[in-house]
Amino acid sequence: MPPAIPLATYRLQLTADFNFEAAARIVPYLKALGISHVYASPFMTARKGSTHGYDITDHTKLNPELGGEDGFAKLSAALKAHDLGLILDFVPNHVGVHFDDNPWWLDVLEWGQASPHAASFDIDWDQLPYRARGGVLLPIIGTSYGHALEHGDIGLRYDPDEGSFSCWYFEHRLPIAPERYGEMLRIIVKDAGEESSEAGKAILELVSRYPGLRHPNRKEAPGFKAALKTIPGAADVIARGLSAYKAGEGRPAQTLALHHLLERQHYKLGHWRLASSDINYRRFFDVNTLAGLRVEDAGTFEAIHRLVKKLIADGQLQGLRLDHIDGLRDPAQYFQRLRRLIRDARGPAVGPFYVVIEKILCEHEKLPSFAGVHGTTGYEWMNVITQLLIDGKGLEPLDEIWRQISNKPPKLAPVIKEAKRRVLETLLTSEFTVLTRLLARIANGHYSTRDYSEDSLRQALELYVLHFPVYRTYLTGAGPTEADRKLIDHAIAGARAEWFASDGSIFDFLRDALTMDLIKRDRNTTHSVPRVRRFALKVQQFTGPVMAKSLEDTGFYRFHRLLALNEVGGDPSAHAMAISDFHELMQDRAKHWPHGMTATATHDTKRGEDARTRLAALTELPHGWTSAVARWKTMNAPHVVTDGSMRAPSATFEYMLYQTLVGIWPATGWDDSLPERLQAYALKAAREGKEETSWLNPNEAYEAGLRAFIERILDRQHSAEFLQSLETVAKRVALLGAVNSLTQVTLKATMPGVPDFYQGTEFWDLSMVDPDNRRPVDFAAREQALRESEAPDWAALADHWPDGRIKLAWTRQLIKLRNEMPSMFTDGAYEPLEVSGRHADHIIAFARRRGREAVIVVAARTLAPFTDGGRVWPHADAFDATVHLPGYSAPQIQNGALPVSALFTHLPAAVLAARVESSSDHSAKPAPALAPQS
């Protein structure tokens, strides 16, 4: 049996090209690497062709594109045979909608609020303007609705196998409400001229059995459809009669008939741009094809977790990673239900069931405690490691070059505030409108607040969102915690300070609505209790997407002071971290969250883990870097495309490109795929930044100029001098990045937490943001390298560091140690160790200990002085530092001290097994050393 708490996880991105069987084939390799649990991307049925699995269309079935039940059985058998566990990335917050593949969504379109699945979607049915009946907006039309209708892009079809009608807009199916079938069939039979035929009369007779505007209803519809499809000749009659609804050019009557039919449905078709302002269903961020689920509904929760419960009960699932928990209305309630489900599924099984959550914590934010949750997926620790690797003295020159290039101070807050404003005005306007209208209804429900106008409330709520400092609060139906109140009060204070209207009491009302005090202070209040509760809880679901779109998907692509810090869960304006602060954080983690994941790369990170360690190294070469950038700007000035006031790329974007290039430049030489990869990244980055171009309003001239600039600077015929200079700098940065990476993986594998390894990152990971970081992995090369590292020749590996084998070999050694001493790494204490000597500030040293067992970890940072500025691999004798180890024994420890020069023989990191000496027993034999030795 695999351990209940993983020793090391390995993330696999499952796709049609890398399915269950392909995953099963690499299980022996993962076992040899030392992995205890495979951590799989979502594998429930998703949209056909999905490259990530998050667009689930049926939570109750295994994805047939991945191999379905047969394929999963093979993976499960392989995992069991090698004693590996399986962790599933589960998506409770949303499902894929539109198209024709989600049965729940199609049922809602067909039946509206009468659908049993309507409760599963967060739809504001009454929000559509100028419409007599409620409905859901479908922003799927590529042109205007009128243009699509008049040009025949929307067509009515009959499915003889189902006995049902649907309109189709290309690949989008739009079910027709059965209550309209009688009206339609009369017109269809008449248009076909079949009133007197046997088939025509049978159809009309069937229709006559269901008189009235609301028939056939949901109960009657299955019988109606079954009867219709069994009428001989009915399909032919209907096929001919559908011309009555065949819209197109020169067919005004039929176009109007189809329009009137569509207007009587439970949905309204619209141009895709309407989504930002008019959409009335909660989405995953601003993705129209991902609709939010009301998992707080007990029936919805039970339905989407049915397969998960079965897999747990069958012993095929040993852990869960919960995606985007900030999208949930009430996470506390969700995790209580999930814990009960897991308990019911496992029966009398002993030991914990591993659960981690995708939660992005802002600086100084503490993770709330949820039932059965072991921690996060580890973004916060990735950024802690990065800050530890940064040379604080090198940040000041980088601040200055950013100030010169951007003509702005290196402060993030104004950037995020402006980005939030942009997001509220464009991408998430519709969701914001829903909240504003709900707040106005609440205000109008009591005589004391009815004079607050909707416009004033909108402005006040906008200021609150602009000043809200984290992703969300975690109120429950019972109200806010003390931490939640502090966050709300902080944002209210910031908003109030910027309010220039006459009545500031509006913020007292807003605060009381957000905290739900509005319905608690006076039991006789006439404020609507359901509306206040709904508003407060929906705001929580809104501030998260606003922050994510503003920080991760806008600010990170505008603020380029140091790209190593522009990472999910990170602060681009952060400073370097002192070793003492790192120790304090680790001691706290060992006490409170020892089993959460530690990630250094994921499918969502903005760049590969080794591209990041390279960029961190720029702080070690600040003056050389700033000089190089100045030369490059001069060299490449002729390649910049200008047109009036347009400059492609902008000065700040050009600087971002230079950082990106040194981060991804191949250590082993030119890669023909690099220009295409960089072009794709640059286009995405430019549109995400929403300055010169955007996804909503692409600026073709700017984007063409950007493409031309990249083509020219990567063409040796045009830019030989630049490329030669770039390669010189990149080589130095690459070496520093490599030694940084070895420290990074050492810390990840030994600090409190469960180390998570993203697929393929055993070699150097120089990828960019998705989809670049989801390219196929060459597992054959890694398997071969692993076989060759059974008895690693560290000197040879160091000599050939660019090929990445040294990283794989060291990773294996570290995971091997975790497997040999599992309880110590899972539950052991964390003890900082004192370091003395001239280079003490370059050495991170700590002990993990449990009982008499201990592991001493020593790793180096900011290694430019020991590598001749990135020109040579560091040598052990260059380090003047000693680790003090009173109370520990091991062969290398003499008189309670351990010189770093005795450890760093080939690598700037070492891990030693040791024993804790007892005051009553000094005869304990020391454990063998496990660090790479000569």
Provide a descriptive summary of the structure in words.
By secondary structure, this protein is of the alpha/beta class. It has 33 helices and 28 strands. Strands 16-15-14-5-2-1-20-17 form an eight-stranded parallel β-sheet. A five-stranded antiparallel β-sheet has the order 21-23-24-28-26. A three-stranded antiparallel β-sheet has the order 6-13-12, with no helix packed on it. Helix 15 (379-389) crosses helix 29 (716-750). The radius of gyration is 31 Å and the shape is globular. The model is unreliable at 920-931 (pLDDT under 50).
User: How are the strands of the largest sheet arranged?
Assistant: 16-15-14-5-2-1-20-17
Overall pLDDT metric? 94
Distance between the termini: 37 Å
Structural class by SSE content: alpha/beta
What is the number of beta strands? 28
Low-pLDDT stretches: 920-931
Total number of helical segments?
Answer: 33
- If you compute it from the alpha carbons, what radius of gyration comes out, rounded to the nearest whole angstrom? 31 Å
Which percent band covers the strand fraction? 5-15%
Main sheet attributes: strand count, strand direction, barrel closure: 8 strands, parallel
Q: Roughly how much helix do the residues carry, as a percent range? A: 40-55%
Which oligomeric state applies? single chain
Backbone shape? globular
A few lines on this structure:
With 934 residues, the protein is α/β, with parallel strands linked by helices. 43% of the residues lie in helices and 13% in strands. The strands form 8 sheets. Strands 16-15-14-5-2-1-20-17 form an 8-stranded parallel sheet. Strands 21-23-24-28-26 form a 5-stranded antiparallel sheet. A 3-stranded antiparallel sheet has the order 6-13-12, with no helix packed on it.
